[in-house]
Amino acid sequence: QVQLVESGGGSVQPGESLRLSCAVSGVTFRPLPVGWYRQAPGKQRELVALLSSGGSTNYVGSVEGRFTISRDNAMNTVYLQMNSLRPEDTAVYYCNSRTTWGQGTQVTVSS
């Protein structure tokens, strides 16, 4: 059974950076496709970045050029590097693979 555990959230000021981690367990073969989603208060959950099994990436337009999704196969971990953070990036960030979700990690960007 696949399990996803996020970490790395926190409170930062605009312009600063954070790196989120998603530890993937329960998989012994090829890497799973993994996506990072976020949900801000009163808004629907949205896909932020997607990393396919083959390594291709896709981003929502609002984070293009600021966020980078990557994978460390040896560590079975998927990262979301977030640079130049903005107040509108404030949300709970979730890691997802197919039907499995992590518990979420809060990111707050405020001056």
Counted by DSSP, the helix tally is 0
| Parts with pLDDT < 50 across at least 5 consecutive residues | none
State mean pLDDT (0 to 100 scale). 94
Shape: globular
Tell me what portion of residues adopts beta-strand conformation. over 45%
Secondary structure class reads mainly beta
Distance between the termini: 41 Å
Notes on the protein architecture:
This protein is mostly beta strands and 111 residues long. Helix content is 0%, strand content 51%. The strands form 2 sheets. Strands 2, 4, 5, 6, 9, 10 and 11 form a 7-stranded mixed β-sheet that branches. Strands 1-3-8-7 form a 4-stranded antiparallel β-sheet, with no helix packed on it. The model has no long low-confidence stretch (mean pLDDT 94).
List keywords for this structure.
7-stranded mixed beta sheet; 4-stranded antiparallel beta sheet; 11 strands; mainly beta; 111 residues
